[in-house]
Design a protein that fits this description.
2 domains; seven-stranded mixed beta sheet; Aspartate Aminotransferase, domain 1; four-stranded antiparallel beta sheet; 39% helix
């Protein structure tokens, strides 16, 4: 099997991930922050250590400002619903995932906020100057993806923040964490939402949200935290503010192990390999008559995610043939990002997404190119 669906979830995981999860299951852990016995304290220390590991990875100055979430969608909703107030205006891009667009649409339909989706060219990359033009006195948030989940286009987040320093920036790093260098202090990122199971190579059911000091959020959920239990008021301090309920301790242990693998391997090494594989795949695709490539079509300006179509063929049919005839796993359709597909010119049919990862090989890329060439020749 050739796995080219890493933008959905990475596969395989580093060996230490399964070992960390199994270790929790076999040796036993309690509920962190809920009791004072040995197993509860063991779980609390594990979660705290993982929080420190993630904070160091993203250069977060205070690990207490990082809350664990179920995934990037959970983190984005917590940030969007937590920071916005009635009559606020939001700037976003025309390349966003529905985990951003649906909360914004919901709040706009409810008459709470307004938003502007700044247009992008067909390459999928924003012009920072357009954000300056679209900013208003009531703009209270900028939320953008760091890299497109459809075509891999990398957004100039640091430049946008440099031009609009007084507006909080929420960066959706679901597709970039673990693949691109992320330094929240150097890039001026006010809030960082990330998924644990994609580029970070951890298990599903993990993610996180960083909130810089000075930004106040309303809690997205209320419930038990193990702190201030005498009060019906939910704690107003991080990370408890955003961590109601029992943590996914086993998943967090696996995520911490994955991040340690990334630190040992280095993001620079991962980025170089993924760029090389992306370049080889783009070059091969460009030689096949009838292949349409969407987005930057440049390994340096995108992650290892490529969106394509075959002329006059349905993307779902092509993806099915790749799976059944060649054992190549891809994803077709709209990828939960219809606005991005409108921008790229692949709406309403969607596209075939080929998303590579660090563990893929040049031989697998070559096999995929040959398979697509054969499907192009034979037709639907």
């Amino acid at each position: 099997m050739i796995y080219f669906d890493n933008a959905a979830t990475s596969h395989p995981k580093p060996g230490g991930v399964g070992e960390a999860i199994a270790g929790c299951l076999e040796s036993g852990i309690g509920n962190p922050g809920r009791s004072g016995h040995a197993l509860a304290l063991k779980a609390a220390r594990l979660v705290f250590s993982a929080r420190e590991t993630l904070a160091g990875f993203f250069n977060i100055p205070d690990c207490g400002r990082l809350a664990f979430t179920q995934n990037a969608t959970h983190a984005l909703n917590a940030a969007i619903h937590g920071i916005l107030r009635p009559s606020d205006h939001v700037l976003t891009t025309a390349m966003e995932h529905n985990s951003v667009m649906r909360p914004l649409h919901f709040l706009k339909q409810a008459g709470v906020i307004d938003y502007t989706a700044v247009p992008c060219p067909a390459t999928g990359q924003s012009d920072p100057g357009e954000f300056v033009k679209a900013a208003r006195p009531d703009t209270k948030l900028i939320v953008i993806n760091h890299a497109s989940n459809v075509c891999g286009a990398i957004q100039p987040a640091a430049e946008i923040k440099r031009l609009l320093p007084d507006i909080p920036l929420l960066l959706d790093a679901a597709q970039s964490a673990g693949s691109l260098t992320l330094d929240v202090q150097a890039a001026g990122i006010d809030m960082l939402a990330f998924s644990g199971h994609k580029g970070l190579m951890g298990p599903t059911g993990t993610g996180g949200l960083y909130i810089r000091r000075g930004i106040e959020l309303a809690p997205f959920m209320q419930g038990g935290t193990g702190s201030r239990s005498e009060s019906f008021d939910h704690p107003d301090f991080l990370p408890d503010l955003l961590e109601a309920g029992t943590a996914n301790v086993h998943g967090i242990a696996g995520l911490a192990a994955a991040v340690k693998f990334l630190e040992e391997t280095t993001i620079a090494t991962i980025r170089q390999k993924e760029m090389r594989l992306t370049g080889i795949l783009l070059e091969g695709l460009g030689l096949i008559p009838g292949v349409i490539i969407y987005g930057p079509n440049d390994a340096e300006r995108q992650t290892a995610t490529i969106a394509i179509n075959l002329k006059d063929q349905d993307p779902a049919d092509v993806a099915l043939r790749l799976d059944r005839e060649y054992s190549i796993c891809t994803r077709a359709s709209l990828h939960c990002a219809p606005l991005a597909h409108r921008t790229l010119g692949s709406y309403p049919q969607g596209s075939i997404r080929l998303s590579l990862g660090y563990f893929n090989t040049e031989e697998e890329v070559s096999t995929c190119v040959k398979a697509l060439e054969a499907i192009t020749r034979t037709g639907s």
